[in-house]
Structure prediction request, 270 residues.
Amino acid sequence: MKEMLTSARKAHKAVGAFNITNYETAAAVLKAAEAENEPVIIQLYMRLFDSTKAYDLCGMLQRLAHRGKVPVALHLDHGATVKQAQDALAWGYTSVMYDGSRSAYDENVKWTKFVADYAHALGATCEGEIGHVAQGDETALTDVGEAVDFAKATGVDALAVSIGTAHGYYKSEPKLDIPRCQAIADALPDTPLVLHGGSGTPLADVRKSVEAGIAKINIATEFLDGYIKSSLKVFTDLNGAFVPPDKLADPIIESCAAHVQRLIKFFAGR
Ligand SMILES: [Zn+2]
Prediction:
């Protein structure tokens, strides 16, 4: 992931990072990336690492990634424990996030550095978070000085910053603090920044954030919600008839891929 984010930042582009849950969602992301000829990040939320889901899916994801048409990173999203990060790297994920953003600063530094060192020893990438992107009501915008200290102390390859986005759907339009993002980027010219809570963020603000140093944009809710809605339509249209499920998957993948392709194209500045 490090290489793709470093070149994206230089080119004022961002790489899309999409949360997948199964074959259909993964195949849709890869199909979209191939159609746009852009690198892509396939990520799994940390909860899937607490069951066999992330382990079982990894074999399939490696097959998809090794098709070789575009670079693909396989990433643990919001790793909550050192064990999740170690498991992810042992199973074949190429990149891990350790999210200590709700802990005290020193604890966040300590464990993020531990995971970053561990990942680097295996040739993998590590993302950390400083400040806290809202989950419900709690939010803490990233302090510029703290971001610089954190990046230097931990050695993370990518840094998630809190500049006004939130996870999930918005109840009212978010206001992004672009000058804050720009100040962090200016102070950390070699660290690609990550925007969490990309779903539903106004596209004009997304573009400005990319110009201001964001090189990875996480999309979960709006992509997965689109998957549920297109699945619901396909299953409803069946009206009780029998069709082999692999055939049912095709229009769902098609619809999800079209959605992802629009986003990848936009993140690439086209
Ligand atoms: Zn997130």
